[in-house]
Structures are given as C-alpha cells and as structure tokens.
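Before surveying the methods themselves, it helps to consider a single example record, giving the amino acid sequence and backbone structure tokens:
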Amino acid sequence: MLDIHIDPLLAKDDPAKNETLLAILPLFGILFGLWTFYFMRKDMFPDKSVPYVVLAGFTFSVTSVSMNTLNKAVVSFTHQPFTVTCIQMMIAVPTLMCLHGREVLAADRTQMLKWCVVPIAYAAMLNTSLIGYQYLTLTLVTVFRNLAPLVTMLVEGIIMPPEHRPQVTLPILASMMIMVVGAVLFSWTESTFSWIGLGLVILNTLIAIFDRLLQRRLLVEECKDLPLSACMVVNNTLGMLPTLMLAGISKEFQGFQESGANWRDPGIIVLVIMSGFMGLFIGMAGLMCQKAMSATSFQVLQNMSKVLVVVIGVQVFHDKMDSHMRVLGMFLSLAGSMAYGYARTMETAPQGASTALISKRNKV
C-alpha cells in the first residue's frame, strides 16, 4: 500500500519554533550586518580577495543550512508550501529591484520575453522542494538529496551529447554505492519514511536538471546579454502565477482556518520572512563562491552545510538517530556524498579552466 504519511501540523507553541529562532535568528542578524557593510564599503571587498572569499563562504554556509531548517519549520507550522513559496517570491522581487532596479529596467525587453519560459520550471522546482518537507524529516531529506547525483548522471547520460556526458569512473560508482547503502540503512527502520516524499525528491531533482539546462541554454544563446538580476526578477514575478494556481487547486486557502493561529504568530511570521531573504542570498552566495574559490573549497562548504543540517534536524526537530544502524547509514550517506564531490573535483582539476562549466554542471 502506498505510504501517504504527512507530518502533523505543529502548534505555534511547539518548542521547535523557539529552537529554530534561537538557531537561525542570530546568524540572520550577523549576515544582514555583514551585507549592509558590504554594500556600504564595496571597495574593501575586491573580487577574490580574502574579505570577499570569507563573505561568500560564510554567506553560503549560513544560507544553505538556514534554508533547509527554515523551509522545514514553516511548512511544519503551516502545511501550506505553495503559500510559503509565494511569500518568498514576493520578498525577492522588491529586494532585487531595490538593489538592481536600474539594471533590470534597462534590460533588453525581447530577451526578457524569451526568458519567460523559465519561471514555470523555476516555480515547479521551488514548490516540489517545499512539499517534500511535509512527508519527510529534515535528516531524511538530506539523505535522499545526497542521491541526486545518481539521478543527474542517468538523465544527463541520456540527453547530453557524448562530449558533455558525465564520466563514469570507479571512484564515482563506489561513492554512489556508499550513498545508496547509507540511504537504505538509515531509512530501513524509519517510521516516517514516505514513498511520496522520496518521489518528490526525485521529481525535484529532475525539474532542477531541466531548469538548469534550460537556463544555461538561454544564457549562452537567446538571452546572453540579459543580466542575472533581470532573470531573477522575471523568475520570481511570473513564478508566482503557477504557484498561486497550485495553491488554489490544492485548496490551501481553505486550510488557513486550521493553521490561522500560526499565521498570526509573530515568531512564525519572522521564520517565513527569514526564509525569503535566505532564499535570495543563497543563489547570490553560490555564484560568488564558484567565482572566488576553488571547486574543492566549495565542495567542502557544501559538505559542512549538510552535516550542520543533520545536527539541526536532530537537535531542533528531534529526528531519530536512535540506533547504530541509523548512525552508520547517515555516516555512509554523508561520506559517500563527500567522496562523490571529491572525485568529480579531481577528475576536472587537471583539465584547467576550460572544463569549469562541466564541473559545475555535474554538481547538484
């Protein structure tokens, strides 16, 4: 029988709310202060300088951990992922316009029109990501997302031309096998395991692959002169339309009665607002990191973030880590992910800068 387990709606006085606020709010304050200083004194952050690299690395680590934690929290307290996605998009648009308004308004209108096919995939990627948190714990989401390279490699091996297909080597196969074994061991006795949740993670990965390939094609061909700020504004503005449609179809608006008390709670409102800003900063930080540091350093940041997400899942949301099998499964999942990232980095490093795009394409 198909497992349709959905995590219960958390009450506004659940300890997870305050624990999430205590874990993320100080980091958000530090991040906000650092970026305020950055915009005031950009001359102190030249590209690839130590201050620039530190800012980029710290921002990516904080936003990566915070986005997973905040998304899990807001979905658990509201059970309205489409509404949350819309709010995140509504936060992103005015913020981007305040920071890059002139650049967006000066962008080529023809290229912006061509870019309008992207928001559908972009919205689908964001929404499937948030829906998954209704069916899976934070630690299970981390374990299943570690398997994303397996899906990516299979899909790109089929659709990409031979010269751009990901290489299949012994270290790559070994690392993937470790991740699969880890996922099986961790989820074998997991009472909250959901096949729907696993399916959503796989669907999210497939949509993310399509979204990335579509954006890459447009950025190098039809929309090559379109600034990234304009792309992000179009994505978030038009992405609200299909998201609102999904909210209506899934009858989320009728669910406001059930979770109305949570939506009026200041603490949960703060969590939703922080999730919007963290989502905006994570994309910016990812681009900064890939420009300013080596692929190996960026991979280390990604892996450190996964470890911290697991720690928060156990400490804040009380995800079970109550047996040697589960601990071993999580260890193998994280170790396999690290080994995969290292193997991909090593196979492209000797080829020089000309293969940097291929290296990025193989990361999820």
Summary: The first helix runs from residue 15 to 40. The chain has 15 helices and no strands.
